[in-house]
Amino acid sequence: MKKLMIALLSVAMLGMVACNDKNAPSGPGQEEEKKDTTTVTIPEGVDIPAEAITVAQAREICAKLESGATTGTKYYVKGWVKKLHSKHESGVTDYGNGSFYMVDKTGDTDDFLAYQVYGLNGQKLTSADQVAVGDYVVVYGELTNYNGTYETVGKGAAYIYSSSNEKLGNGGGTVTPEVDNDGSLEKPFSVADVRKLNNAKSGTFWVAGYIVGAVDGKSLADGAKFEAAAVETNIMIADDADASSVDNVIPVQLPQGFIREALNLSANPDNLKKKVLLYGSLEAYFGAAGIKSVTAAYLDGEEVVEPADEEMGSTTIADFLAAEKSSYVWYELTGVITDEGLGEGQKFDLTKYGDFMLEDETGAVYVYGIAAEKGGNFSKDMGLEKGMTITLKGLRSEFKGVAQVGSAYLVSIAEE
To answer: What are phi and psi of 355, to 5 degrees?
Structure first.
């Protein structure tokens, strides 16, 4: 009898061990642990560049940026589509760009927003379902910190490099059409080459053409002006100086500074039909193949050179407002920090962005951000407050025709 009791006790103990074994198969009525295998196996056909970074790495890069700042460098960011942005569908319908959140694995709460991105090769998306939850994607573009949201720079500046979504192309973005030139200074791409490449070739290259106009609108299709239009931020170039069709041109974004001042048609109407050689990045612009981030240029065979800085010394705000725009003439202004004078409804945030109105006895001017030193970034530790009298130096710039102080940096704070 004693042996029988011992045997029964042993069986019971074995049963308890089996019930507590996490690896034991589940019996009737028990739920098996659910696993999401999409976080383990990346779908076939998705091209992932060796230099692609994870969502976690992208977030780390963005966390080091001041709010509103961009990386200036483009990154490939890889991950799973966690959810679609509330404006994804309307963005695709109205502008051809989509917005969605990416994560490294299912269940992650720390995500990255692919914001207003175009499709493969920088082409516009044609339907909202070309991006779906559960897709594995690689996006390419500059990154930014927008009020604490880590995302790509919007408005089509970034695009989907590859994707597992078959409606988008299941891993396109890697086919580079053949062209005769290589984009070097000796063999620059023609406008026809750039149109054929259609943003499929990343990097910076030389492109040759003739200035034939500018884009004054939201897209090349509806905003092309084949004349010396009053537009400063861009030009159109073509292989033929007499081109008159959008099918034969590419738009060129002119960066703020000496290149814009030298090439734009608003200030230089005589540039129309002149030959130009540009060094920049092949990117989508105005919904078409284009050029951005131009860092060097030749106009009619002459190199466009950045002028040396010129110091104008102490100037009244009235004289500053009357001066011509310039990217190399520096003015010294002394005035009181205020937020009055630019117009009803304007909002400033001195402590967050470093922008404010500066006023003296002759007038007031908007200061578009201020740094602690020349060429630096705004710091929240500068101790600036409304009502202070300060001296700064900056450039005479404009935004939408309104004068402002650009690239400003602090010289001194007056003692009370």
So the answer is: -105, 145
Q: How many residues does the chain have?
A: 416
**In sequence order, what are the beta bridge partners of 163?**
137
The closest alpha carbon to 115, from 133, 137, 93, 141, belongs to 141
Residues 219, 283, 95: CA angle, nearest 5 degrees: 35
Of the candidates 328, 329, 257, the residue with the CA atom closest to the CA atom of residue 294: 257
Neighbours of 214 (CB within 10 A): 27
Q: Give the chain's radius of gyration (CA, Å).
A: 29
pLDDT band at 123, cuts 50/70/90?
confident
Please tell me the distance from the alpha carbon of residue 145 to that of residue 66, in angstroms, as a whole number: 7
By three-state DSSP, how is residue 280 classified? strand
Q: Helix (H, G, I), strand (E, B), or coil: what is residue 285?
A: strand
Nearest to 315 by CA among 238, 248, 393: 393
Please give the Cα distance from 409 to 372 (Å, whole number). 6
**DSSP 3-state assignment of 343?**
coil
Residues 343-364: what's their mean pLDDT?
77
Mind giving me the DSSP string for 282-306? EEEETTEEEEEEEEEEEETTEE--P
If DSSP codes are grouped into helix, strand and coil, which group holds residue 263?
helix
Q: Which of 100, 99, 104, 98 is nearest to 60 (CA)?
A: 104
Alpha carbon 282 to its chain's center: 14
Written as six digits, the tokens of 152 are 């790509």
Torsion of CA 37, 38, 42, 45, to 10 degrees: 120
Q: For 168-209, what is each residue's pLDDT tens digit? A: 865 544 446 678 899 999 999 999 999 988 777 778 999 999
